[in-house]
Amino acid sequence: MGHLVGLSHDGSAAGKGSQVSWAPIMGLDPEQHVTQWSKGASNAQDDIGILTGRMGLRGDDHDDTRYDKGTRLVVDGNGRVNSVVGQNARNQGVIEDQDDIDVFVFNAGAGTVDLVVTPAWQAFAGAQQHGGNLDVHVGLFDTNGKQIAEQGPRNSTAANLKARVPGGRYVIEVKGVANPAVSHSDYGSIGRYYINGKVPSAGSKTALR
Predict the structure, then answer these.
(1) pLDDT in tens, 165-174
(2) N or C: which end of the chain has fewer CB within 10 A?
């Protein structure tokens, strides 16, 4: 398919055997945990530039800054945050390019915020955690823009953010990042992700407006 739109072969993988092992999609070793479009892996081609030139780029699905309205995170009465893979759009999104940051807002009571942001792995429902294009970073902010916590581990493409907070309104930001452990950049760190976990129940008095 890549050849049909003008893409040539790239190089081989990096960090083999790890949860963040990397390979270019047009490369020689596609069975790694993270596979991405590349720019100059072993040739000078800008893969994403060529693809968007041929097919365009999907529109943005969530605000890019915490100072915009953001998307309301769907939280049930018990504080649970769930997304359903392959069905509806609640508590999920797509990082569509290198500069995209998706912003979600929620209210919480006092307690522990515990959220897992997971890329769309090829075998999402099974034990395998490979085949995705996105390496996730997530940040937690208060309404004044102060960062409370962040998570983007070097040994996983998912991020589990935990932080104790007082009651109030909060913002999470999701973006794709580079991983120095295998020397991949944020250029091709794009794709779908899912947000699950739990936040302290805020009760009806602190409902989002």
Answers:
(1) 999 999 999 9
(2) C
Question: Is 37 in contact with 48 (CB distance < 8 Å)?
Answer: yes
DSSP codes joined into one string, 124-170? TTSS----B---EEEEEEETTS-EEEEE--TT-SSEEEEEEE-SEEE
120 and 154 Cβ atoms separated by less than 8 Å: no
Give the separation between CA 119 and CA 51, rounded to whole angstroms: 21
C-alpha–C-alpha distance, residues 36 and 190, integer Å = 8
Q: Which of 13, 54, 15, 16 is nearest to 25 (CA)?
A: 13
3-state secondary structure of 171: strand
- Model confidence over 47-77: pLDDT tens digits? 989 999 988 888 888 888 777 678 999 999 8
Residues 120, 194: Cα–Cα separation, whole Å: 7
Domains in the chain, CATH or no CATH each: 71-202 (2.60.120.380)
Q: Which two tokens stand for residue 107?
A: 């209210």
Residues 148 and 187: beta-carbon distance below 8 Å: no
Q: Which residue in the block uniquely carries the two structure tokens 């309301």?
A: 72
* Intra-chain end-to-end CA distance of the chain, in Å: 46
**152 φ/ψ angles, rounded to the nearest 5 degrees:** -165, 70
- Exposure on the CB side of residue 176, measured as CA atoms within 13 A: 26
* Gap between the Cα atoms of 2 and 67, Å rounded: 38
The two beta strands, 92-95 and 191-198, are antiparallel
